[in-house]
Write a structure and sequence with these properties.
Length: about 375
């Protein structure tokens, strides 16, 4: 059996050799959702690492639970999972994601695949080309990215897919920087066309961070005729606008102009400003909080419900996804390489479920 690293290297080699062509975009029409077609998702990319560490999650009463059946019971219907090309560790590689995809399907949940076209984190500040593709010509880089995308779709069969993660600045730097917009949007167009050729019913999401530059970005995507189904936006109040009342008008404006559905691809909020290990947390100061939403279990729940209702109330809203609710301090309280997110997880410091899980209740849609 191939090791994780060998399997990923083989995938890279195959992408260069295959040289498959792309067809033109199918003319998919965005449909208005019914209540249960809305995404109520979580990004659980740390889950297999948590399992490997022996983590036990608990319900609100402190009883041990199996994670995936538990979140499904709470109303979650979609699990988002990231994949890195050839990471140095044993998680978020092809083998790990294939394992998670199998568990997700066994539990009757949908798979949302988040491709980081990188060996590590890809976000607005980091979009490093995978080492296996470094130094390639623009044509070979494009072929490698497209055929890698094909293989992932063919093997993992996602229901939803992001061709890139928070690609405000482009992807596969330096060649694919947003400054080289013709080449970058050409990469995105070819990748999305390949998705539809491999799995026509897979929803293609284009994902950027924040809504303030979304009009410019999606306007460029339109001008370069990039095919996609939904816009995907990261919305963290401490980075993208502290007043959640501004979210729905922003979504309404985007839908009115582009007539594409919109999902909140990432969001989170702290239930405390304390910590449970010696790893520096992303959020830890009152200045990062939104007015009226304290860093308490109730404040976390109320903000997440407010975000979910903003999405549900928007004509273009197609759902939301909470980032890393499972990323508790599973390496122990002394770890300085543990979780920088344990105070934004949806389990408290004893791994007991928090009230914010109520935001995934599908009945919230009918209570607007």
């Amino acid at each position: 059996m191939l090791s994780s690293k060998s399997a990923c290297i083989l995938l890279s080699f195959l992408t260069i050799l295959m040289g498959l062509g792309c067809k033109k975009e199918s003319n998919n029409q965005t449909k208005q959702p019914v209540a249960d077609s809305l995404i109520r998702g979580i990004d659980a990319s740390f889950l297999s690492e948590a399992w490997k560490a022996g983590t036990t999650y608990k319900d609100e009463s402190g009883n041990p639970v199996d994670f995936l059946p538990f979140v499904k019971l709470k109303g979650v219907n979609t699990i988002r999972v990231r994949i890195w090309h050839t990471p140095s560790g044993r998680f978020s590689n092809f083998e790990d994601v294939a394992f998670l995809a199998e568990q997700i399907r066994k539990n009757g949940l949908k798979l949302w695949l988040c491709i980081h076209y990188s060996d590590w984190w890809a976000d607005p500040a980091n979009q490093k080309t995978p080492l296996a593709w470094s130094g390639l010509s623009q044509n070979l880089l494009k072929d490698s990215l497209v055929n890698y995308t094909r293989i992932l779709v063919r093997e993992l069969k996602p229901d939803f897919i992001q061709t890139g993660n928070e690609i405000n600045g482009g992807m596969c730097w330096e060649e694919g920087r947003i400054a080289n917009e013709g080449y970058f949007f050409g990469l995105l167009k070819a990748a999305n066309e390949a998705v539809t050729e491999e799995k026509p019913d897979c929803k293609r999401l284009i994902h950027i961070a924040g809504y303030d530059k979304a009009d410019w970005f999606f306007g460029k995507a339109l001008s370069y005729q990039v095919p996609y189904d939904w816009m995907a936006i990261s919305y963290y109040t401490y980075w993208h606008g502290k007043d959640p009342e501004n979210l729905q008008p922003a979504l309404d404006g985007l839908f009115s102009k582009y007539k594409k559905g919109i999902v909140i691809a990432e969001t989170a909020y702290p239930f405390t400003l304390s910590w449970n290990d010696w790893t520096n947390n992303v959020i830890g100061d009152t200045s990062q909080l939104s007015s009226g939403y304290p860093a308490t279990p109730l404040g976390q729940k109320e903000l997440l419900i407010r975000i979910s209702k903003a999405v549900y109330s928007s004509q273009g809203g197609r759902g939301f996804c909470y980032w890393a609710p499972e990323w508790v301090s599973f390496y122990g309280p002394q770890s300085n390489k543990g979780s920088s997110w344990e105070n934004q997880a949806l389990f408290d410091f004893s791994n007991k479920a928090l009230p914010a899980w109520e935001a995934f209740n599908p009945l919230l849609k009918t209570q607007n």
